[in-house]
Specification:
Length: 546
């Protein structure tokens, strides 16, 4: 097939057409897509305008012009910015070459072969290419073709892997005039609700890609289904909400036929979709529609506020809290056992929502191991948005939540406060943000074990030492011990870190030495505290490896 095309240009215009133009599918599709490229390559080598080369070849091979009686009018030429005089000059014996090459679109140039050889097999490619490019004049012209009448409009005959028909492509690109021309075609009416292979309708594509004018036009079409669900359960409203298409979301909500309660297969409604991806303006528009409940939970059981917090979208959190219906202390789902029973996950990245949840499980398990806790307490309160923000270290979210006086800064997260969460997780900036609020109880003890935030940080050492400094600066009492009197004090815990460093200190000596120096600094700070309890404490001797 390539030999046939390249041979046409190898010896200039001396050779006759080496192969008859037939309906052979492989060669014909290749010709449709690649003839312009070969012509351009030949023209560059010979220093000639491409459209002139193509026009001369057309004349040399005596290719028929089946559309000559439907040639582009002067009005269409002017609209497309084409010089009509140039198109009729002797150098351009083919009326299509100058028109097609004035369009800076590969899809339009592909049409060159079809306009000379309007074979049925090429009809879908032709109409779909022009619809994708958005040339309404050529769309109207091709719609008069007998071959187009039965091809190119039916997705079952589409040659693209996705099964797009011409209307899908026009809506995907936002070509309203093209879509209108296709829908107005009387010879072969096109279904406005037609689906491609992935189950998307034209409205789905227009909404997802943010084409407001197209969405409004489609909604005005009789028999339009405004709530089509694809196999994943997504509707145009869900797609637009996830993509952050504020104007489109507003236009869809203005249509009384839109069902705002439809969810995808994860149970995510439009508000949760917007919250997860940080689209604050979309969330604001959605909340203005009182049909949407901001506290609706997905199949995992979490509301929009939790989803926005999990990903650190402070702007969305702020929008949600502006709605008085939003439950600011709504909690995540799952028992402590659900969280603490997960093993660490390799290659855990913050890019996916399930990954974040696994990281929280790992943190909860390590917390339980440090306190030697036997967990069977499914009744223990779960994370609020504030506790989740503390665990993830989302400082901006913490400040937005604390600015809402409905939020309880000391609400138990499982059995510890948000401040204790930052101490266990080693989130210094999050701890400092919490300490800015005078309502935060710096010496709060968990009701099960009597552990404070300072003691929690002392259990870990290393990067948690900065949190101890911040806590001491805000009046934390280093003498508060857990309920069990046999448990070491915070001072003794730190001393043991120096004498018997954690494994990660030994594996990275440089980091270990920095951590040990900071640990010794914190010990000096504690020893300088008035009335410090020295029971069980002896000056530590640094480990010889560090």
């Amino acid at each position: 097939m390539m030999a046939c095309i390249t041979h046409c240009f190898s010896d200039g215009f001396v050779q006759p057409l080496p192969k008859a133009l037939t309906a052979d599918s492989t060669f014909t599709r290749y010709a449709f897509e690649q003839w312009p490229a070969h012509a351009e390559d030949y023209a560059r080598k010979h220093g000639q305008p491409t459209q002139q080369v193509v026009s001369q070849l057309c004349s040399k091979w005596c290719l028929p012009h089946s559309h000559s009686e439907l040639a582009i009018t002067a009005e269409a030429d002017a609209e497309a910015g084409i010089d009509s005089e140039a198109a009729t000059s002797p150098s351009y014996s083919c009326p299509w070459a100058p028109y097609l090459y004035q369009n800076d679109s590969s899809e339009i140039k592909h049409l060159l072969w079809y306009l000379h050889q309007p074979l049925p097999i090429l009809a879908p490619l032709a109409i779909q290419s022009v619809a994708f490019a958005g040339n309404v004049n050529l769309v109207k012209l091709l719609l008069q073709d007998l071959h187009i009448e039965n091809a190119g409009l039916d997705p079952k005959q589409a040659l693209s892997p996705e099964g797009h028909n011409a209307l899908h492509l026009a809506c995907k690109r936002g070509h309203v005039d093209v879509a209108e021309a296709l829908l107005a075609h009387e010879k072969h009416p096109i279904d406005v609700n037609v689906r491609c292979k992935n189950g998307w309708t034209p409205l789905s594509y227009a909404a997802f890609n943010g084409h407001l004018a197209m969405v409004k036009m489609l909604l005005a079409v009789p028999h339009i289904d405004p709530n089509p669900q694809d196999p994943t359960g997504n509707t145009p409203l869900l797609r637009a909400s996830r993509a952050g298409r504020t104007d489109v979301v507003a236009a869809l909500l203005a249509d009384s036929r839109i069902n705002v309660d439809l969810r995808d297969k994860n149970g995510w409604n439009p508000l949760i979709c917007a919250a997860m991806d940080g689209h604050a303006e979309v969330a604001s528009v959605l909340l203005a529609d009182k049909r949407l409940d901001p506290n609706t939970r997905c199949d995992n059981g979490d509301p929009a506020l939790i989803h926005a917090t999990m990903d650190g979208h402070a702007n969305v959190v702020q929008v949600l809290l502006q709605d008085p219906r939003t439950e600011v202390d709504a909690r995540m789902t799952g028992t402590f056992f659900d969280w603490a029973s997960s093993d660490p996950v390799e290659n855990d990245t913050p890019a996916s929502h399930p990954s974040r949840r696994r990281r929280l499980k790992v943190a909860a398990k390590r917390l339980a191991m440090n306190l030697q806790i036997k967990i069977e307490n499914s009744f223990i309160p779960k994370f609020t948005a504030l506790g989740l923000a503390a665990m993830e270290g989302h400082v901006d979210v913490i400040r937005v939540l604390l600015a809402d006086k409905r939020a309880d800064p000391n609400a138990p997260q499982f059995w510890i406060t948000p401040l204790m969460v930052t101490a266990f997780a080693g989130k210094l900036e999050a701890a400092e943000a919490l300490l800015e609020d005078p309502r935060v109880d710096v010496n709060a003890k968990d009701p099960l074990f009597g552990v404070t935030a300072l003691y929690s940080a002392a259990l870990w050492g290393g990067p948690h030492l900065g949190i101890i400094k911040a806590l001491l600066a805000h009046g934390a009492d280093p003498n508060i011990r857990p309920w069990d009197p046999t448990v070491d004090s915070a001072l003794v815990c730190l001393a043991k870190h120096v004498e018997d460093p954690p494994q990660e200190w030994r594996e990275d000596p440089a980091m270990g030495r920095r951590s040990m120096d900071e640990c010794l600094e914190v010990i000096e700070m504690l020893l300088a505290q008035p009335g410090i309890d020295l029971k069980g404490f002896k000056p530590p001797k640094p480990h010889p490896l560090l």
